[in-house]
Write a structure and sequence with these properties.
4-stranded mixed beta sheet; alpha/beta; about 425 residues; binds uridine-diphosphate-N-acetylglucosamine
C-alpha cells in the first residue's frame, strides 16, 4: 500500500504553476465527441480521472494521443455509444458522456453511476433535462438506455438546483438539438465558462455561461475544437491553505484569482496576508491561523464544497473556533475522524462541524477516503508536529497531478512510500 510520509512543521516557500482543472477537462473531453475530426486540448492534467475519461473515448472509437500536457482526441469515427460498467465505476462523473453521446450518436447507454464517497449522488436533474430535450430514457437494472435522434429539439429548461454536472450535460445535449435551448437556473461555476469556450471553438452558438441563464442554439454543424484548460482553483486553494497551515509564503500562478475569492477571504480573515495579480495569488502566513466567521459551502461564487475539508484542516492546527456548514453534499465530513487522530478538536453533526484550533496538530497514520478529504490530510500533515502517514492515495491521484513533487519543491518534507 502506498502512502505519503510527511514530516510536518517546515514552512513552505516558493512559486508553482497550477495544473489544468479536473472539473473543466472532463466535460471538455466529453465535448470532443460532438464533432468528427481531431480536437486539441492543452494544459490537460495527468490524473487517474483523465486517464479513465481517455479510456472511455478510446473504447467509443476515438483515437486518443497524449504528448506531455496536450491531448488530442480524434472523434472521426465512433464505433459504439455504450460505456461498460467497468469504466463507469472508475470515474463517477462519467455520466457527463450522456449528453455528448446523445447529441452525436442519437443514443447512449451506460450503467447508473450510483452512490459515491460523498453520499448519494443523484442524476435526476441530468435525466429530466435530457428528457425535456426529447430524449427517451429507460432505467433498467442499473442501466440507462437513452434514445434521441430526430426527437431532440431545443427548449427552455429549468434546473431546481444549479447542478454543475446537469448544466454541462444539458449544454452538451443541446448542441445536438435543433432550435434554441435556454437553461434557467444554470450553475455559474467557472468550469462551465471553460466548457462554453471549447464549444464555441467547435463552432457551437453558446452564450451566458458564468451567469444563471445559458443559451445554446443547437443542431448546427460542428468542427473539432481547441482549448487550453483553465487553472484548477481547488488545487490552487489546496497549496494556499497548505501555506496557511505550515506557515511561509506560497505563490500560485496560472489561475484566475477571482475564482479563489471565497477561499482567499477566509485565509485573510484567518490572519494571512494575501496579494493577487491577473493570473496569480500569494498567501503569506507568519502566525497560527485564527478562527473565522462561519464558512458555508454554496454554489459558485460561494465557498466551494471542494475546499471545505482543506480549509478545515488548516484551521484545525490554528487557534480559535470556526463553524462550517456543508450545504452541497450529505456525507462530506469523513475527514473529521482522521483529523481527530492528529489531535484536532472538531465536533460534527449533520451539516455542521465546529473546529476549535488546538495550536498545533500532531502527526499520525491517517487515511483519505475521498479526493479532497485526502488532500486535507496532507495539508494537516504539513502543519503538524512529527510524522504523518497519509494512505488512500488512489483518491488523491484522481485530482492532483504531482502533489508531492510540487510540495517538496516548496520545501515540504514529503515522500511517497510504497
Ligand atoms: C461537481 C464537481 C464536484 C463539486 C460539485 C459541487 C465535477 C466533475 N465535479 O460535481 O467536484 O464538488 O460540482 O461544486 O465537476 N443534485 C441532485 N440531482 C442531480 C444532480 C445534482 O439532486 O441530478 C444535487 C447533488 O446531490 C448536490 C448538488 O445537486 O447536492 C450539487 O451537485 P452538482 O453540482 O451536480 O455536483 P457534480 O456536478 O456532481
Amino acid at each position: 500500500m502506498s502512502c505519503y510520509r510527511i514530516m510536518g512543521g517546515r514552512p513552505l516557500e516558493g512559486r508553482l504553476t497550477v495544473q489544468g482543472a479536473k472539473n473543466s477537462v472532463l466535460p471538455i473531453l466529453s465535448a470532443s465527441l460532438l464533432a468528427p475530426g481531431r480536437s486539441v486540448i492543452e494544459n490537460c492534467p495527468d490524473l487517474s480521472d483523465v486517464s479513465a475519461a481517455l479510456d472511455i473515448l478510446s473504447l467509443l472509437g476515438c483515437r486518443v494521443d497524449r504528448q506531455e500536457d496536450t491531448v488530442t482526441v480524434d472523434a472521426s469515427v465512433l464505433r459504439r455509444f455504450d460505456i461498460p460498467e467497468r469504466l463507469m465505476r472508475e470515474m463517477r462523473s462519467s455520466v457527463i458522456f450522456l449528453g455528448a453521446l446523445l447529441a452525436r450518436m442519437g443514443a447512449a447507454e451506460l450503467s447508473y453511476p450510483g452512490g459515491c464517497e460523498l453520499g448519494p449522488r443523484p442524476i435526476d436533474l441530468h435525466l429530466a433535462a435530457l428528457r425535456a430535450l426529447g430524449a427517451e430514457i429507460r432505467e433498467e437494472q442499473g442501466c440507462l438506455r437513452c434514445r434521441g435522434g430526430s426527437h431532440l429539439h431545443g427548449r427552455e429548461l429549468c434546473l431546481s438546483i444549479p447542478s454543475v454536472g446537469a448544466t454541462e450535460n444539458a449544454m452538451l445535449a443541446a448542441c445536438g438539438c435543433p432550435g434554441l435551448t435556454t437553461i434557467v437556473g444554470a450553475a455559474r461555476e467557472p468550469e462551465i465558462e471553460d466548457l462554453q469556450a471549447f464549444l464555441r471553438s467547435m463552432g457551437a452558438q453558446v452564450s451566458g455561461a458564468g451567469s444563471s441563464v445559458v443559451y445554446i442554439r443547437g443542431g448546427l454543424p460542428l468542427h473539432p475544437g481547441h482549448c487550453r484548460v483553465m487553472g484548477d482553483r481547488i488545487v490552487a486553494a489546496t497549496y494556499l491553505c497548505a501555506a496557511g497551515a505550515a506557515g511561509g509564503r506560497v505563490e500560485v500562478t496560472g489561475v484566475n484569482p477571482e475564482h479563489l475569492t471565497a477561499v482567499l477571504s477566509c485565509l485573510q480573515e484567518a490572519g494571512c496576508e494575501i496579494r493577487t495579480g491577473p493570473d496569480w495569488a500569494v498567501v503569506e502566513s507568519t502566525a497560527p491561523l485564527r478562527g473565522i466567521s462561519p464558512v458555508r459551502t454554496a454554489p459558485y461564487p460561494g465557498f466551494p464544497t471542494d475546499a471545505q475539508a482543506i480549509l478545515m484542516a488548516a484551521l484545525a492546527g490554528g487557534r480559535g473556533t470556526t463553524m462550517f456548514v456543508e450545504n452541497i453534499f450529505d456525507s462530506r465530513y469523513r475527514h473529521v475522524d482522521e483529523l481527530r487522530r492528529m489531535g484536532a478538536d472538531i465536533r460534527a453533526s449533520g451539516r455542521v462541524a465546529v473546529v476549535t484550533g488546538v495550536g498545533r496538530l500532531h502527526g499520525a497514520p491517517v487515511r483519505g477516503t475521498d479526493l479532497r478529504g485526502g488532500a486535507a490530510l496532507v495539508v494537516a500533515g504539513l502543519g503538524a508536529e512529527g510524522e504523518t502517514l497519509v494512505s488512500g492515495l488512489g483518491h488523491i491521484q484522481r485530482g492532483y497531478d504531482g502533489l508531492e513533487r510540487a510540495l517538496a519543491a516548496l520545501g515540504a518534507d514529503i515522500q511517497r512510500v510504497d
